[in-house]
Amino acid sequence: MLYSLLNLYQIEPPRYILVGIVTHFMGLFSCGFLIRSHGTARKMMLVAMGLCIIVTIPFFSAPTILWVIGLLVGSYASGCAVASWGWFLKTYTPKNERIKSSADILIYSNIIMILINVTAINWSPLGGIILSILCLLIGIVFTLLLLPSHSESPNLAENMETKPDNNIFQPLLLLCLFVVIITVNSGLMYQVINPAFQHLTGLVSWYWAVPYIVALILMRNLPETIKRSMILYAGMAMIIGAFISFMLLGRDTYDYLVVDTLMLGACGIFDLFWWSILGEMLDYTDNPAKIFGIGLSSNVLGVLLGDILGMGMTSICLPSADVAVIALAIVSVTLALLPFLNRRLVYVLKSHAYLAVYDSMSDIRKMAVLDGIKPLDPLTAREHEVLQCILEGKSNREIATDLSISESTVKTHARNIFSKYDVTSRAELISNLLRN
To answer: Which residues have CB under 8 Å from 281's CB, separation 6+?
Structure first.
């Protein structure tokens, strides 16, 4: 939409685009340091969306300094709104369902994006602005309905079982590094691949995000028996295929369909990976906005670096073969990083769909894990059963059902287990055992 507006007034887009990306990154990254409760998160979302509506109004008229101000304020505010939403993802979505919630958010937001994009490109940029404001108004209405309290949210008590844990810092840092590197390719796509097919205006306006949505739908509905971590390697192969195709093929409709399908399908795979990982990490912090915001800001940072790199390539008219070589080098780095990232994440996120490890072990290996670190005092038979359930990623409620005991009894056994292993939380317990 912004590109369409800038083209309408014959303004070069790079400066505006970079301003928007940088301030959006700042909003995502800093919001968690400002938000410390559900109530303030809800207020931040409402204020941010209201500001976005107000600062969008100047875009109905010719460019002035208000455009720059609006872009600065709106980009920062939207980053704060998205980061604040982390509180509600944690509260209202059971941890084992967050991969589906993340997929739904990405699917529906991209469907809306297609509608706005088609309107802005094929009809009028002002029509795209009107649709965007309408979406913000609907968002405000739904946010007003979010009134979290301990009594109103059935999942809140269960989701708060885990306590803040320092073990989350290193895996989060490694995940952010992985996201920054892999999304540099997204920035290259915006600045190098997309402009090469801009003559296919009608097709590009609606098909661009279709492979992304299809990939998300497929990943969302994969059977639990399929190991999703292997699909990440398939995603990397798709990125490699996209840049090789861009290098070898022409610039016609068929060529665009091949390149875009491979590239955006891979983006869908990776976006759901780190969105859902961040969703699981929310259980190990008392400030979900900080984890969620910092995690998503790494995605924006990667796009920003890719944009800058792509602009440089475009300015010197770098051949498509050289672009492909650079992209392949980036993928090579992420390929080397992925196994180490996976090992670090399983220490904390044992039950995540991408990272299941303990469930797939043989009984002998499971016993080896438990024997690897001796508790300070021997576990009782019941505590041993509870420990097995904890390692399988089950909640207190699920453990109580499986063992036919009360939830409060489960909590008592869990506290005893933590004491005997000299840990303070599930995350630390799982980390210590699985690291062995």
So the answer is: 168, 171, 172, 291, 295, 348, 349
Structure tokens at 347: 């220490």
CATH class of the region 358-435:
mainly alpha
Domain residue limits, the chain: 2-348, 358-435
Q: Which CATH class is domain 2-348?
A: mainly alpha
* Alpha-carbon gap, residue 25 to 306, rounded angstroms: 14
- Residue 145 burial (C-beta neighbours within 10 Å; 0-12, 13-18, 19+): exposed
Angle between helical axes of 288-315 and 14-31 (0-180°, round to 10): 160
Amino acid, single-letter form, for residue 243: F
The Cα-based distances of 380 to 112, 222, 399, 414 in angstroms read: 54, 38, 16, 12
**pLDDT tens per residue, range 347-363:** 556 555 555 556 666 67
pTM, two decimals, is 0.76
CA-based torsion, 20, 56, 268, 295: positive or negative = positive
What residue has token string 């997204």? 186
Q: What CA–CA distances, in Å, run from 178 to 58, 63, 221, 235, 274?
A: 38, 38, 25, 14, 9
Residue-wise pLDDT for 220-255, tens only, equals 988 766 767 778 888 889 988 998 898 888 999 999
| Count of C-beta atoms within a 10 Å radius of residue 26 | 17
Per the CB < 8 A criterion, the answer to whether 210 and 329 are in contact is no
Token pair 């920035």 in the structure block, residue: 187
The DSSP letter of residue 189 is: I
